[in-house]
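Obj.: predict assembly geometry.
Materials: sequence records (below).
Method: joint structure prediction, all chains together.
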Amino acid sequence: MPFFFGRNKSNNTRAAFSHYMVSLFSNTAKPTVLTDEKTLIAGCIKGHESYRYELYKRFSGKMYVVCKRYAGSKEDAQDYLQDGFIRVFDKIGTFQHNGSLEGWIRRVIVHTCLNHLRSRKLYLDVPENAPIKDVNAPDALNEMSEQELLLLINKLPAGYRTVFNMYAIDGYDHAEIADALGINEGTSRSQLAKARIWLKNALDKNTIKESHVNQA
Amino acid sequence: MLIRRDEHNIDRVFRQKLHDAQESPPTHLWEGIRSNASSRKRFLGWWFALGALLILSIGIGSYALLATKELKAENATVSIPNHASKQQPAKDAIASASVIKEEALSENKTNNSNNNFIEEQVKTPVKQSVTIPPAAKAPIKKTKNNIASPAAKKAIQPIAPIERSSTAHTTTFITLPSADIITEQDMQSIDDLAIAVTPANDAQNILYGEVLTETSPITIEPTDSLVAISNASDSANSPIIYQLPNITKAKHFAIGVYGTYLQPQRHFAQEPSSSQTNAYVQPSQMKMHHGYATGMALTYQFQKHIYGVGAIEYMSFKEEMQYSRAQEHANYSYYNLTDSVQVIENGDTTLVGVTIPVVYDTNYTYQGHNRKQVNTYSTLQIPLLLGANQSVNKWTFGIEAGPVLHIAKWYRGDLRTNDLIVASADTSSQSLNVSEQKINGTQISTSAYYKNWNLDLHTGLRVGYNITDKWQIALGGQYRWMMRRTQDQVLSRHRMALPGVSFGLYYQF
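Observations (raw structure tokens):
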């Protein structure tokens, strides 16, 4: 913004003055400590940066995990989260207050992730030698931490991961998944089943080792 | 949270543990979101402004057209100042004008009952610099649109070509030879002159008319752009056609200079993608700073409403890149930094800077200065535009579009840092080749010149105002889509929008 500054000025001076200028021209209304949802949304629609930050602070933690589940890598998840929240602020005027704000934001974020995956056709990425033998999920599954489960999901082939995330965790049905990904419902069901088998097999130590070898 | 009847145990475990799981994202992500969200708002604002300007131009143009038609249908007035109303020639003019009116009334049975038109006030004085022969200095009033009767048309006969001393715009006057009648052919040779004819009169002819065009050369009706022709046989002066101001000759040139201010604008795309091998990091935000262009333009009005523009201009703009995401680079743990190495890369050039940013602090206030790169681009461009315009009095409203050819590019990049350890690198080898360099609160610069070409698209609006017969000032709004190429001529995924406003001064001939 402070493009009008001369080069001879020190950066500190420039930074301080530009910060001052930013504060002059930006919306600096401060949200209350516990801003209610409607006020928060109204502030975001008006473009108040402080309200947007408040909204971001409230939901970015959960949405970051959503992005990590879909992206498969930390770097991509950060990209998705960034794009997702830009889209949230862009579209928040369309929020109808019919459901929860968190649910609406989650759907926007998920669709942002899907857009990214669609553009790279990653949701079609399925392994050729996927395990086909179904096994019982080990009891250890219940004892696994969130991080361990997240790592496990990230190891899922992208095609399985997307459908599993949408169906098992985010509550989409097969018709919605098929519509969102441009695939048949049968394909969605098939990939979900294979994802479950893959996960159960991966929980078995030997299978995990094999999958590592295959990936390497 | 949706719970299904046929839910598998594995689904339930994942859903219970991951559906509401939280993890704080890196703090710098917010900076990128904030910047992009605000720049998008500004971007939309520009579209609204351009849309409003377009609607305004169309509205004014439509109004002008409708007003012209209405004027044709109603009584029109043209007057010459009554400076010599007591002189004998003026009386002749009055008598002639009376004949005009009587004829109009008798032949066309109009409802005009204004018998005192001679005494009416002068409303539109002819430009005073024109030498008006005494015979013409009488109040002239035309009251009906069909004042030029069939008899008047019959009176038109060939004469010698008209010798004229006209200007490109406004207040054109033409000196006729000593003949009292002009021909259709003669009138065609006078672009856009407004002429009407009364029956020939040895003493004096007072003539009215309309703007002549190539398609309607001699439809004799009053308009808002009229002339009066005086042929005073008893005067030493030659007959003169007086044309009221604001008539633009159809075909003319204009040459001028202009300057354009380019509005800061966001970038549309990130490049290169993280999947490319030579991409170490994507800038989280790339946006254009302000810019400017200066140029020289030659315009040619092909027809009354069509014009072309050829120009050569020098454009320079700044581009700022901020980085909120970086790929980790283990070799730099030496510097004991909690954040990662950053590669500042412009997909359009070879300049690459590697910065090791300061430790992120949740309390930082303006981190952008700590880690941003400002590139300055300079290009030589040739816009070739085609436009449509409409003149309303002294104003001209136009809309134009066309390609813009880039023919060269200069580049200079400044990497500005505060308290950073900076290393510069060159990605031309497709690998990160870091040379370490420590700078504190300073900047490193790189410059380059490319023989580069490109083709952009320009759209714009132009509002001109004739300050004199010859000189016009013009205010324009533009929106230019710049397609960029890399150094090796690969079309870049960067597409820059360059909205701007320009101001120009033109000489018409």
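Conclusions so far: The two ends of chain A are 47 Å apart (CA to CA).
To do: check interface contacts against the pulldown list.
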